[in-house]
Amino acid sequence: MVMNKKSVAVVMGGYSDEYVVSLKSGQLIYDSLDRDLYDVYKVVVLKNEWYFLDKNDKKYEINKGDFSVTLENNEKLKFDVCFNIIHGTPGENGILQAYWDAIGQTYTGCDFYQSALTFNKKDTLAVLSKYGIPSAKSIYLRKGENINVDEIVEKLKLPLFVKPNQSGSSLGISKVKEKSELIAATEIAFKEDDEILIESFLDGMEVSVGVIDFKGETIVLGITEIVPTNEFFDYEAKYEGASEEITPARINDETRIRVEEIAKRAYDSLGMSGFSRSEYILMDGIPYMLEMNTNPGFSPASILPQQARHYGISITDLCGNEVEKALAKKSK
């Protein structure tokens, strides 16, 4: 008996500078999904065009009315599941999810509310503080607001970090060591977003924690220690290899258990689903949360696939689990 295969569109790209990474992540998922179970297709979503790629890399426009594609012989292709692996906007901040909800398209990962919330660093940390998850001291500014340098430095002390409130891939982040550098750092961050966060410096080990819901259970895939060769884990460190990543992190069991517990609590408290990777700084054994990514990098060099390998879950099973969860949600 031949099972009716489900059609899966791996949706990659995006509107931000992260689209390059997303295309690599999408390729890994496209290559890894089990062809005995699924017909797998590629869809690229960019600012100026949304298109479907056939096996010969020929482009067909996506019909935005119902996210379908009309092929050469007038055959219309609809997807049972969209595997969302867009980093940044519109796939990680809820925009695409809200559109898919509106047209009745099933997709992987968390829904539009969780995506929008976790893409907003300030709001995520505010929600999680209610669940006892610590974060750095911070000051929030909107574009055009008066910036009182003396007041900020007095409250947060130097060095401090300036970062866009909503941006992925560590774009627009600066470490400020002198009072005189603060205004320039805010200008860099405001290029990425109209809202910025200025945070106190947490002096400790940075760890990246992969958490997923796998076969009905929230599991910590792994804790990876980030050893940046730059001042901090910036874009270059993340994507151009300017950091050393050690899985598992060199921490004692007591600290590991505490990190796992807090990472799971953060995931469950936010009502998350699908892949997630959250960043923490460990100070005196306490994990302080920096941010949560709901569509983390998934290229072969990325942290989450490394953690899955270490945990013993194959990429095929990891990706298949996401598709099956989406299908189960659809049938409810």
Automatic annotation (TrEMBL):
Its EC number is 6.3.2.4. The keyword Magnesium applies. Pathway: Cell wall biogenesis; peptidoglycan biosynthesis. Coiled coil: none annotated. GO terms for molecular function: ATP binding; D-alanine-D-alanine ligase activity; metal ion binding. It catalyses: 2 D-alanine + ATP = D-alanyl-D-alanine + ADP + phosphate + H(+). Mg(2+) 1 binds at E291. Its cofactor is Mg(2+); Mn(2+). Keywords: ATP-binding, Cell shape, Cell wall biogenesis/degradation, Cytoplasm, Ligase, Magnesium, Manganese, Metal-binding, Nucleotide-binding, Peptidoglycan synthesis. It is found in: Cytoplasm. Binds 2 magnesium or manganese ions per subunit. Residues 125-324 form the ATP-grasp domain. The keyword Nucleotide-binding applies. Belongs to the D-alanine--D-alanine ligase family. Cell wall formation. This is D-alanine--D-alanine ligase. It comes from Chryseobacterium defluvii. The gene is ddl.
